[in-house]
């Protein structure tokens, strides 16, 4: 697991947060559509175009993870040939992360 130091927030003259402080912070965002379980021999035989069935339906909520920690739930939105995720619910942060 990667640990990163985040610089302290500073306030400018107007009293707003200086968001430039966050310019160099990177976060891995993962959207989990569903899960499945399969034997390793099947995984090794997967090829291009293989279809893996998941335990979720097309209308089920997706989990949104930030650095492998669940932060929100949402739904998949398709607009033409673009796929996006609409955030529907923010999850409470664990006490040790507040």
Secondary structure layout:
Layout: E1 29-32, H1 40-45, E2 62-66, E3 69-79, E4 82-90
Antiparallel strand pairs: 1-2, 2-3, 3-4
CATH structural fold name of the domain at 26-91 = Surface presentation of antigens (SPOA)
Q: Any idea what the CATH superfamily of the domain at 26-91 is called?
A: SpoA-like
Q: What average pLDDT do the residues reach?
A: 84
N-to-C series of helices and strands: EHEEE
Helix content: under 10%
Query: Total helix count?
Result: 1
Radius of gyration: 19 Å
Main beta sheet: 4 strands, antiparallel
Q: Which CATH class of the domain at 26-91 is shown?
A: Mainly Beta
| Poorly predicted sequence stretches spanning 5 or more consecutive residues | 1-13
Please indicate the percent range of residues in DSSP E strands (runs of 2 or more). Answer: 25-35%
Global structural class: mainly beta
Note the gap between the termini: 19 Å
How would the global form be characterised?
Answer: extended
Number of strands: 4
- Read across the widest sheet, the strand sequence of neighbours is 1-2-3-4
**CATH architecture annotation name of the domain at 26-91:** Roll
Notes on the protein architecture:
The structure is a single chain. The protein has 98 residues and is mostly beta strands. The protein has a domain at 26-91: SpoA-like (Surface presentation of antigens (SPOA)), CATH 2.30.330.10. 6% of the residues lie in helices and 30% in strands. It has 1 helix and 4 strands, in the order βαβββ. The protein has one helix at 40-45, and strands spanning 29-32, 62-66, 69-79, 82-90. It has a 4-stranded antiparallel β-sheet with strand order 1-2-3-4, with no helix packed on it. A hairpin with a 2-residue loop joins strand 2 and strand 3 (69-79). Residues 1-13 have low confidence and may be disordered.
